[in-house]
């Protein structure tokens, strides 16, 4: 007989799970803070052992939706084509973010 689902849940943080598994290098970053994110990634690469980096930020689509509800101005993000040397579309294909749309 199936059990009735409880309305009570609790939140687990990925960084706490990583620490509980014995990971010594665990950092939480804001992915839009590029200097800190880059420095943290470089530290993780040099770290001798497993390393976990958690990128935490509200999804851009949700953030923009909430701004529209509050009647705030929404400034769209875009890739500066003059600074993008490769034009490989990796930002679209690898990230799989629905907020990144290719325009011809």
Automatic annotation (TrEMBL):
<dbReference type="InterPro" id="IPR029061">
    <property type="entry name" value="THDP-binding"/>
</dbReference>
<dbReference type="InterPro" id="IPR017896">
    <property type="entry name" value="4Fe4S_Fe-S-bd"/>
</dbReference>
<feature type="domain" description="4Fe-4S ferredoxin-type">
    <location>
        <begin position="75"/>
        <end position="104"/>
    </location>
</feature>
<protein>
    <recommendedName>
        <fullName>4Fe-4S ferredoxin-type domain-containing protein</fullName>
    </recommendedName>
</protein>
């Amino acid at each position: 007989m199936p059990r009735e689902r409880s309305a009570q849940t609790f939140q687990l943080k990925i960084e706490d799970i990583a620490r509980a598994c014995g990971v010594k290098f665990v950092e939480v970053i804001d992915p839009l803070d590029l200097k800190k994110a880059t420095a943290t990634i470089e530290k993780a690469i040099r770290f001798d052992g497993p390393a976990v980096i958690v990128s935490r930020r509200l999804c851009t689509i949700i953030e923009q939706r909430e701004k529209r509800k509050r009647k705030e101005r929404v400034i769209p993000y875009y890739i500066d084509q003059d600074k993008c040397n490769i034009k490989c579309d990796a930002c679209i294909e690898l990230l799989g973010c629905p907020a990144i749309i290719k325009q011809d």
